[in-house]
Structure to design on (230 residues):
């Protein structure tokens, strides 16, 4: 499969509109084909406006199971929680009819929670669409360069769908839970949502194969679209 080209939009508002429309179309198509589908949503500040649009969009939300590409090891009430972000911005309005499969479980240890989360991820897959961001260091989800969890996380033959990712130097700064490459590529479509020149430069042309994101760009399991605006 050839490396996807970057689709550039004139403004961030146009980017958010396009990303929301792309996700709705992918979910609608998947539900029509399979009756139900999953949506793996990413964290961070960039996707929040996309989730605001999705929350008001007409889609078969009652047939969609939302989950996360990764999560900080914090409860949903913590400001850094991706679950909290998704509950505030996506699972409201029309999209409140969707189900939700968490990665964080109160009262469980880090590895215990990762193992428990696997059942929900397996039930939501195959995903209709996965939304990913990309870090300046080339990480996606919580699969960081230099992490002791990286090799297992990127292993296409791994049976694990969810991993407990320990804190590392320089990243991540705290314990996290992450879906694996195997889980994230079990989808009809991966949307990479990026902003700014630095991230465009990271993904433009030949991508360093040592960067984790290269695994997503060079695989042939799922279609990838890169949506960008300054």
């Amino acid at each position: 499969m050839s490396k996807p080209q970057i689709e550039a939009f004139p403004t961030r508002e146009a980017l958010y509109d396009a990303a929301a429309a792309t996700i709705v179309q992918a979910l609608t198509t998947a539900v029509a084909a399979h009756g139900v589908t999953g949506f793996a949503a990413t964290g961070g500040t960039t996707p929040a406006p996309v989730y605001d649009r999705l929350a008001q969009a007409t889609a078969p939300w009652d047939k969609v199971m939302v989950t996360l590409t990764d999560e900080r090891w914090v409860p949903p009430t913590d400001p850094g929680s991706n679950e909290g972000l998704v509950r505030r911005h996506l699972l409201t309005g029309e999209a409140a009819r969707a189900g939700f499969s968490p990665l964080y479980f109160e009262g469980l240890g880090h590895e215990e929670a990762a193992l428990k989360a696997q059942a929900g991820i397996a039930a939501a897959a195959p995903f209709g669409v996965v939304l990913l961001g990309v870090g300046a260091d080339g990480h996606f989800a919580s699969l960081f360069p230099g992490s002791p969890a990286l090799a297992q996380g990127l292993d296409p033959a791994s049976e694990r769908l969810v991993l407990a990712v320990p804190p590392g130097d320089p990243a991540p700064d705290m314990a996290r839970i992450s879906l694996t490459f195997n889980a994230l590529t079990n989808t009809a479509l991966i949307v990479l949502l990026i902003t700014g020149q630095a991230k465009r430069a990271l993904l433009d042309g030949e991508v360093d194969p040592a960067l984790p994101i290269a695994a997503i760009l060079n695989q042939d399991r799922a279609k990838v679209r890169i949506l960008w605006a300054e």
Q: What stands out?
A: The longest strand covers residues 189-195. The mean pLDDT is 97. The beta strands are 6-9, 37-41, 64-68, 70-72, 99-100, 127-132, 162-165, 176-179, 189-195, 223-229.
